[in-house]
Amino acid sequence: MAAPVKKREIHQKTVEERDDDEEQESSGSEDEEQEKMADAGMEIQVDFEGRNPQDPDFHGIKTLLQQLFLKAHIDLGALTDLIVSQNYVGSVVKQSEDLEESDEEDSEDTFDVFGITTVINISDRQNLPCIQQLRDLLKELSSEHATDAAYTMIKNVLENDSQPIGLLINERFINIPAQISVPLFENLIAEMKRASNRKMPFNFSYYILICKLYKMEDKKVGKTKNKKRNNADTPTVMWSNPEEEIFAEEATVSFEFTVENESDSGLSGAWTETDDEMKPYRRVLLFEASKFQSIINKIKSQLS
User: Fold this and answer.
1) 20 to 30 Å CA-CA from 146: which of 1, 32, 49, 218?
2) Where in this protein does the record put region Disordered (predicted)?
């Protein structure tokens, strides 16, 4: 039986104009003045809140997972069902509910999912096909793209059930600021601790995080955001979720691969005038669970 919905207020955040039609539709009810501001390229203020995942969030969560996994052979429907079933851990990000509107309309139909922050135990319940598919994908990708040392580390951790691994999922629309991740991560840690105290399998030794990033030539760097300049011979790296660069700095091992030949979701955002120059990548990070809180502290310090 699903647990009661818990709401966690997230302070007002600035959301920049979305050029993609699909994102415009998913931004929830907006008055005409806000739409005019967005059309003019201005910023608007939106209040977000974190809530426990519920059944009506299924399609929104699945869509966010699709932008991460693209054409990977994973049953995302089953994975979404698993996320919703463990709704005592994790949050979906929604636009704060207007009380007057909620009296007139069903809020489940009014407010869309803007993000999902949760964790899945991929050492437990390996009898579930979607969990086995995740494990097989990680082994396959690390075998193809990681260094020998990184592959060996990931393989050993995956095969050692005495060191449980959590797949950390941190997905949202690209225009939502990185600062929103801090209360979501802090809440996730608190919920995992409560679940562990109740003998639920959320006491991890390691986490794996799959990050979305883009690479482009330095000549375009002045026109982009969320950028990191490397040296003159390497492309500029832009993180879809900027806070994940801090996770990367603390990773025990990592590897990356291009997804240029896969169809990236429109939810990943529109990069005007640079689309043909940008190459989408995924970077897989393995980091120790003991570092999670310090990483959050570092995100809070650097992105505040």
Assistant:
1) 218
2) 1-40
